[in-house]
Amino acid sequence: MLIHWPAIAGHPPSSDIHQSIRLGTWRALERHVREGTLAHIGVSNYTLAHLTQLAANCTIKPAVLQVEIHPWFIPQAEIDWCKANNVVVEAYSSLGEGKRLGVARAQVLLAWARMHGWVVLPKARSEERMRINLKSVRVDLTSDEVEALDRVARGKNHKFCWDPSKWRK
Ligand SMILES: NC(=O)c1ccc[n+]([C@@H]2O[C@H](COP(=O)([O-])OP(=O)(O)OC[C@H]3O[C@@H](n4cnc5c(N)ncnc54)[C@H](OP(=O)(O)O)[C@@H]3O)[C@@H](O)[C@H]2O)c1
């Protein structure tokens, strides 16, 4: 079970309500883990500020951070925090929401994320595309190729999906 978003709809980013509801929700999830009704709990779209605040106030660490990752947007600070804290990173919008993608490029993008060690969550409606995407597990890139894709992102910082960074509290 994941908390989808670090903020509450209908309140300005500066409101204290985001932090209090976020921590309250986490405590409720922790209770379910202790009672055995949830096996693993995690968060999505949390920035480094949200993650460190959660770590300072939780008894059970998140198992996973689900976050937008592709070569145009690599949230390095959050990825480093997850590595240091043994939290699984799960990438979404790995295909840039599918904009102008060919088969080869889709598989390369999925292989790139997998070779970084992130869990990848591609979305596809047709069985054919699901098969194509699944076959990316057989695509291995060289370390030079992975680094070349890493370099595409530098300075670009382009997100396809939403941006949680204005909720700083
Ligand atoms: N936690 C969050 O806030 C959050 C935010 C966004 C997304 N997500 C989740 O992440 C997953 C991925 O979401 P996403 O839609 O953002 O991104 P995505 O996986 O980057 O892109 C999905 C798009 O790519 C197309 N596509 C899939 N495979 C393809 C292929 N082999 N060749 C060409 N196009 C291909 C799909 O088309 P068709 O569907 O037409 O096949 C769809 O339009 C979803 O499960 C979503 O629920 C989570």
UniProtKB/TrEMBL annotation:
It holds the Pfam family Aldo_ket_red. The keyword Transit peptide does not apply. It comes from the Eukaryota. Keywords: NADP, Oxidoreductase. GO terms for molecular function: oxidoreductase activity, acting on the CH-OH group of donors, NAD or NADP as acceptor. Gene3D superfamilies: NADP-dependent oxidoreductase domain. Residues 2-99 form the NADP-dependent oxidoreductase domain. Belongs to the aldo/keto reductase family. This is NADP-dependent oxidoreductase domain-containing protein. It comes from Catenaria anguillulae PL171.
